[in-house]
Amino acid sequence: MQTMRVLIVEDELKMASLLRRGLVEEGHAADVAPTGEDAVWMAQSHPYEAIVLDVMLPGLTGFETCRQLRNAGVWAPVLMLTARDGVDDRVAGLDVGADDYLTKPFSFAELLARLRALVRRGGGERPTELIVGTLRLDPAARRAWRSQTEISLSPKEFALLEAFMRRPGQVLSRLQLLEHAWDFAYENRSNVIDVYVRYIREKVDRPFGTHSIETVRGVGYRLREDEE
Ligand code: CA
User: Fold this and answer.
1) pTM (2 decimals)?
2) 16 C-alpha vs ligand 1 centroid, how far in Å?
3) Which of 94, 148, 168, 183 is a good FRET partner for 21, with 20 to 30 A between their CA atoms?
4) Could you tell me the distance, in angstroms and rounded to a whole number, from the CA of residue 26 to the centre of ligand 1?
5) What are the pLDDT digits (tens) for 11-49?
6) CATH assignment of 130-223, given 2.40.50.140, 1.10.3120.10, 1.10.10.10, 3.40.50.2300?
7) Could you tell me the residue ranges of all domains in the chain?
8) Which CATH class is domain 5-121?
């Protein structure tokens, strides 16, 4: 079984040491942060596979702590401990980027099972916005900007730009771009990518005097991370 390094954020010492001891007995490593402020600092200096975060904390609440963790680029899965079986707490937790919740009181076996499931799923980066140089893209809102100027894109142009922005600096073949930006039903015309790259250059580069989408002869295209 995979060994986890877990950060426990809980101000009640008895609860915190119980959880810590349980994890250590199972062969995992665990640290305790008594406040949200400590947790934000610790999670940025150590790579944790998972974070157990109590909602009821002095100072920063669990919700606010979770939001600050995500803002700080900490993407470890967060299991929130809620004091009551309140739907509001669960929704609020998921809204600020928590991955799962457990209502107190709970069994240690259940906590362990939830943690294992979260760690298996992984804590990949889930930024709300993609930023490459002065290009910014919000996949959920379907909006894009160059610096402060919003750029209007068709759905296909947006999908193609998103494919580039998820892999900045990498050379992407026409086939890779087709796979990321078009669904399988799309007729596979060999020049469709070239046509759409031309369209998006007209929108994201030409008006701004930038040359961010580079042609890599014989291979495909690359979104440059600088914009010289
Ligand atoms: Ca507490």
Assistant:
1) 0.56
2) 9
3) 94
4) 23
5) 999 999 999 999 999 888 899 999 999 999 999 988 888
6) 1.10.10.10
7) 5-121, 130-223
8) alpha beta
